[in-house]
Amino acid sequence: MPPAPALPTVHGPPLAPGAGARVDSHAHAWIEPPEGVDPASALALRDEPMQAAALSKFREAAAPRRAALVDCQPPHCGRDARALARLSRASGVAIAACTGFHLARYYPHGERPWSDADSAAKEFEQELRQGMAELPERKAALIKAAHSGVQGEDPAMWEAALAARERSDALLLIHTERGAQVEALLAELLGRGVPAAKVYLCHVDKRPDHALHRELASAGALLGYDTFVRPRYQPESTSWPLLQQMVEAGHAASVALGLDLAESAMWEDAGGPAALVRHLERELTARGFSAATTEALLGENLLRRATASSSERTGQSSVGQPPDPRTSHD
User: Fold this and answer.
1) Which residues contact 182 (CB under 8 A, 6 or more apart)?
2) I need a surface site. Which of 36, 57, 228, 256 has the fewest CB within 10 A?
3) How confident is the model over 145-156, as pLDDT tens digits?
4) What is the CATH number of the domain that holds 279?
5) High-pLDDT (> 70) share of the chain, %
6) How far is 277 from 230, CA to CA, in rounded Å?
7) Is 324 part of a structural domain of the chain?
8) 256 strand-pairing partners
9) How many domains is the chain partitioned into structurally?
């Protein structure tokens, strides 16, 4: 019998759905900005002792469940899978890494390293199937693509990402600019044959249009909400009402929650990755979300989408919800 599908990690066993892990579905655990990146875009997260200690607190807060995160920094613009492996080993937190591409501003001199779509696709697929460039014994878990909010921009990079996704059947994690033009983007992807269940649209709670989110969820996409511990986005009046409305409308299986703490100062201000449990999970409970819904939002939705094949049904019915998802009794 073949092994059950699971998400590769940079250290330790893979992540499998159904095990009750607490997963930050959009995280950053290490960013080493390359030389030549515009200082205005050079996010830095490279205080290894601080980060290892904060990740250990996440493991302790999640216990007895497994603590995990999806690191969303792709290669050549700050990812170091070796550093991720050290942090995972030191803290006991499982870390899944991604391949793919980001916006041009995160690369040296605003230029990505690939000469054409074929070379980029080859690297992405190799990292997903064989191993990452700086950590060849471990595979990337997802493929990242970045949408600037302008349709038709970066066509070679999108060709590469979609080709690698099709050949690997990986989940396509998409950076959006506050959800700009996300409906047009999803329509284009579906028109090009990308399975909706394999599309993960991130940062879309920065555009808290409930009707739009219902439409995206009904189409089958996974929606990433990640501003709950970032006061500048006013989550009390945006993300929390949006999440409540989505769950009440029956779309709890279409949302994944994360923290998106991409700089050292964010870790300090928000309390680090442990805020997923100490703040976000506690708030879900206090606001009346059921244990089953909480489990889905804090990892299960992401893991099921990422590990299912495109031929499987992974839409809204993939996580059963109780009749009243706001009640605390399952």
Assistant:
1) 147, 176, 201, 204, 207, 212, 216
2) 36
3) 999 999 989 999
4) 3.20.20.140
5) 93
6) 15
7) no
8) 224
9) 1
Q: Is 152 left (phi over 0), alpha (psi -120 to 50) or beta?
A: left
Q: What is the pLDDT of residues 255-296, one digit of tens each?
A: 999 999 999 999 998 899 999 999 999 999 999 999 999 999
Show Cβ contacts of residue 176 under 8 Å, excluding neighbours closer than 6 positions: 147, 149, 182, 185, 201, 202, 203, 204
Tokens of 130: 């064989």
The string over 24-47, giving b where at least 16 C-beta atoms fall within 10 Å of a residue's C-beta and e elsewhere, is bbbbbbbbebeeebeeeebbebee
Provide the domain limits for residue 96: 22-318
- Mapped onto helix, strand or coil, the DSSP state of residue 251 is coil
Give the alpha-carbon dihedral of 293, 294, 296, 297, to 10 degrees.
110
Report how far apart, in Å, the C-alpha atoms of 56 and of each of 63, 73, 119, 263 are: 11, 21, 38, 18
* CA-to-CA separations, 225 to 35, 38, 200, 259, 328, in angstroms, rounded: 31, 27, 11, 8, 22
**Is the backbone peptide bond immediately before 208 cis, with ω within 30 degrees of 0?**
no
